[in-house]
Write a structure and sequence with these properties.
Layout lengths: L15 E2 L9 E3 L7 E4 L10 E13 L5 E13 L3 E5 L6 H9 L7 E10 L3 E4 L12 H6 L9 H14 L15 H14 L4 E5 L7 H16 L5 E5 L11 E6 L2 E6 L1 H10 L10
Parallel strand pairs: 6-10, 6-11, 8-9, 9-10
Antiparallel strand pairs: 1-7, 2-3, 4-5, 4-7, 11-12
The structure holds adenosine-5'-triphosphate and magnesium ion.
Magnesium ion (MG) binds next to helix 1.
GO molecular function: ATP binding; ATP hydrolysis activity
Protein name: ABC transporter domain-containing protein
GO biological process, one term: transmembrane transport
Amino acid sequence: MQGLTSLPPARQAACCPVTTVSSSSSCSWRSRGRGRVAGRRRVFPAVSAATAIEVRDLSFSATGRNGRVVPILRDCSLQVPAGQLWMLLGPNGCGKSTLLRVHSSSVLAGLLNPTSGTVCVDGPTSFVFQNPDHQVVMPTVEADVAFGLGKFNLTAKEVRYRVRGALDSVGMSKYLKIPVQTLSGGQKQRVAIAGALAEACKVLLLDELTTFLDETDQIGVIKAVRNSVAGPGGVAALWVTHRLEELKYADGAFCMEDGRIVMQGDASSIANFLRQKQVPHLDFGF
Ligand SMILES: Nc1ncnc2c1ncn2[C@@H]1O[C@H](COP(=O)(O)OP(=O)(O)OP(=O)(O)O)[C@@H](O)[C@H]1O
Ligand SMILES: [Mg+2]
């Protein structure tokens, strides 16, 4: 766990200026309504080998129906190291999902007005959404995890190896031949995460995966993500949640308010910060 951190000086030369990529053509959707979304085709090198996601001074505005420009993200900066799970917390409407979507470049062209700042993501990115039923598209677990591998020109043996390895990481190996419609919501989420891992994604963006899950499924999903980041691939995860008891599983967290990152630090620092702010319904489980 890290203590409170301060951001190192900007090294923008290695980063992508967001103003140049707010186009749907730079975004590749995995297809057929699957919840996973590939990151930009262009992969920008991270600032250092240990940094998987770096966002610096990022601002986004949207134009409302009345033509008024509404700032959504204001000078947001954050870093997520490779091999770590960081959480993104904050009240409804503060900009968490928007920030994730900027990472994955899945904002449709025309929705956003001029933007400033830089986003660097180290390698392929996968986005997993809240609704488990939108995450899995194939009849069996094995077929679903293998679904995205067609584009890699792998042998059948290599596909089996990747599928099994990914399912191992999320604790779902024994469900290989099981029909996906028989899985619980959390198990479907874990299959979706396995699909991303099978495709060798380096960055997992996870938006309120556990909102509709019971405690057993919640713990299963979060442990699957923890295990994924602990693996040899150096995967980094950014996890949006309202369930504060999940904080104890994080290497660190960012708090957002009104489009800004107002705090970052390890779990206990964030817990203290939220206690001081007297955020209602606090239950960190520690
Ligand atoms: N295209 C858009 N046009 C206008 N306003 C938008 C647009 N996209 C997002 N917003 C507004 O930006 C704010 C942030 O939205 P966002 O979905 O990122 O919040 P959030 O923190 O994820 O909230 P929640 O916790 O409820 O999921 C909201 O007030 C939302 O209405
Ligand atoms: Mg949201």
